[in-house]
């Protein structure tokens, strides 16, 4: 019995596996269209600039426009022609674990999709602590066609408020190292809680909340292991980064 032939949700097509040609590890990133009409790969700073390794290139996946299983690999140099870094960081918040890597490839020629500022959470829509979200990424590399998986998460700190003094919020989810750089999204829904009450949208909406970065560990007893609490940097940092480039 073959698998049912159904369309892949658009948000899944925004996400790419990130591999290192010279290393065994992997990570996650997603595609973003800036207001300057340039296209970027969004991921974590520690993905492109790991502390223990010198990484000169990363490899992403481009998908066929008619068949997402039709894959093409694209290597991206992390070094400019002058030898500097080929990515953009936040101009003020040096702790922000988010970067934007400019892309030379035109994603409109492929089946990949992009997020943009239009996918940010509108000011009037409320996100409360304890509300469910999803994180799309690659906890394991898997096999072709390398479709990302969705992990269920709870928003664990007041959304819009700095967590631990940083421009991020906390999520409660069982995450792994390969998911670094994953987009954090609202659950697709036509019903939204707004400042004026419950609103019904014309269709199911998914909003980009942030960029998953790291899992917190217990500072009280290291043997307790991970807390299943994670840091996600606010999506608005992406525009700050791009506009500073």
Task: Detail the poorly predicted runs.
Answer: none
Cα(first) to Cα(last) distance is 51 Å
What do we call the CATH topology of the largest domain? Thrombin, subunit H
Number of strands: 15
Helix content: under 10%
In the CATH hierarchy, what is the architecture of the largest domain at level 2?
A: Beta Barrel
- Quaternary arrangement of the chains shown? single chain
- How does the helix and strand content classify structurally? mainly beta
User: What is the molecular shape?
Assistant: globular
Number of domains: 2
Number of separate helices: 2
Order of helices and strands: EEEHEEEEEEEEEEEEH
Mean pLDDT over the full residue set:
88
Q: Approximately what portion of the residues adopt beta-strand conformation?
A: 35-45%
Detailed description of the structure:
The chain has a 6-stranded antiparallel β-barrel. Strands 1, 2, 3, 6 and 7 form a 5-stranded mixed beta sheet that branches. Strands 4-5 form a two-stranded antiparallel ribbon. The protein has 2 helices and 15 strands. β2 and β3 form a beta hairpin. The chain has helices spanning 45-48, 236-243; strands spanning 15-19, 26-33, 39-43, 57-63, 71-77, 99-102, 115-116, 132-137, 149-155, 168-172, 183-186, 189-194, 197-205, 208-217, 226-234. It has 2 domains: 10-109, Thrombin, subunit H (Beta Barrel); 117-236, Trypsin-like serine proteases (Thrombin, subunit H, Beta Barrel), CATH 2.40.10. It is globular, with a radius of gyration of 18 Å. The model has no long low-confidence stretch (mean pLDDT 88). It is mainly beta and 245 residues long. Helices cover 5% and strands 38% of the residues. This is Serine protease. One of its GO terms (biological process) is proteolysis.
């Amino acid at each position: 019995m073959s698998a049912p032939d159904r369309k892949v949700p658009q948000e899944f097509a925004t996400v790419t596996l990130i591999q290192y040609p010279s290393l065994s590890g992997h990570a996650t990133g997603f595609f973003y269209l800036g207001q300057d009409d340039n296209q970027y790969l969004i991921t974590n700073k520690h993905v492109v600039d790991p502390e223990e390794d010198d990484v000169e290139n990363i490899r992403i996946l481009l998908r066929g426009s008619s068949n997402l299983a039709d894959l093409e690999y694209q290597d991206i140099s992390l070094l400019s022609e002058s030898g500097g870094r080929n990515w953009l960081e936040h101009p003020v918040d040096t702790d922000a674990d988010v970067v934007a890597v400019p892309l030379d490839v035109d994603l409109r020629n492929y089946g990949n999709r992009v997020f943009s500022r239009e996918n940010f959470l509108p000011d009037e829509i409320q996100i409360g602590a304890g509300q469910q979200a999803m994180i799309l990424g690659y906890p394991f590399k898997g096999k072709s066609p390398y479709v990302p998986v969705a992990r269920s998460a709870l928003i664990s700190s007041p959304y819009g408020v700095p967590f631990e003094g940083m421009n991020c919020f906390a999520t409660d989810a069982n995450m792994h190292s390969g998911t670094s750089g994953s987009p954090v999204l609202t659950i697709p829904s036509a019903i939204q809680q707004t400042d004026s009450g419950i609103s019904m949208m014309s269709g199911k909406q998914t909003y980009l909340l942030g960029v998953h970065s790291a899992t917190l560990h217990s500072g009280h007893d290291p043997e307790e292991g991970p807390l299943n609490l994670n840091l996600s940097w606010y999506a608005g940092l992406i525009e700050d980064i791009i506009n500073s480039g």
